[in-house]
Structures are given as structure tokens and as C-alpha cells.
Amino acid sequence: MEGCPNVRSEMSSSADAACVWHSCAQGIEDHFLEQWHQKLHTNTTPADIAICESYIDFLHSGDGGHFWHSLWERGGLSREALATMDHPITGAPMNCKQAVID
């Protein structure tokens, strides 16, 4: 995606978070990223920063459990909390290493 900053360990805005989605999701069916992308378009909240940072932690670790642990530590959010948001996120994230720029 043109104009996207490099993916880094700290996100500063929902625009940065959208860049992660565009870096990974083109050509890959990932329900988590699709659901989160729709949420970002319609109802961006401070929780999206915790989701984004946790997703990046997950990409670096490659461990699916790390996403949920990081999400809880960073934002006090659980799988159930994501599933009950106005725009539910019910998918589990896929490891998309090509979105990480070292």
C-alpha cells in the first residue's frame, strides 16, 4: 500500500493499523483481519491500538496464544470482549510474517 509507514513495534494511529491489514490481507483470506478492518472503517476506538500492538506482537512471535495474552496485558481485552463489540471480531489472527519489516 503506497504511503504506508514500515510496520513497527508501536503504532501511532488507526491509519498505521490499517497499513498492517493492507500489507497482509491482500490475496489472503484472514477473517480476523477482515473483521478488524471493517471495525476500523466504522467504529475506531482506543481498543484498536491494543489490538494492533497485540497483532504485531503475535506476528513477531508466531505464537497464536501470544496475541491473546498481549491483548489482555495491553488493553484488558479478551476473545469474548472482541466477539461482543459493536462490530464483532470472532476470527483468530493468522501469522502473516510478510507484514513485518525488520
Radius of gyration, rounded?
Answer: 12 Å
Give helix % range. 40-55%
Distance between the termini: 17 Å
Shape: globular
The percentage of residues in β strands lies in: under 5%
Largest sheet features:
none
| Overall average pLDDT | 78
Looking at the chains present, what oligomeric state does this protein adopt?
Answer: single chain
Low-confidence stretches: 1-14
> Given the helix and strand composition, which structural class is it?
mainly alpha
Order of helices and strands: HHHHH
Supply database-style keywords.
single chain; mainly alpha; 55% helix; disordered N terminus
How does this model look, in words?
With 102 residues, the protein is mainly alpha-helical. The protein has a domain of 68 residues. It contains five helices and no strands. The longest helix has 15 residues. It is globular, with a radius of gyration of 12 Å. It starts with 13 loop residues before the first helix and ends in a 19-residue tail after the last helix. The N terminus is likely disordered.
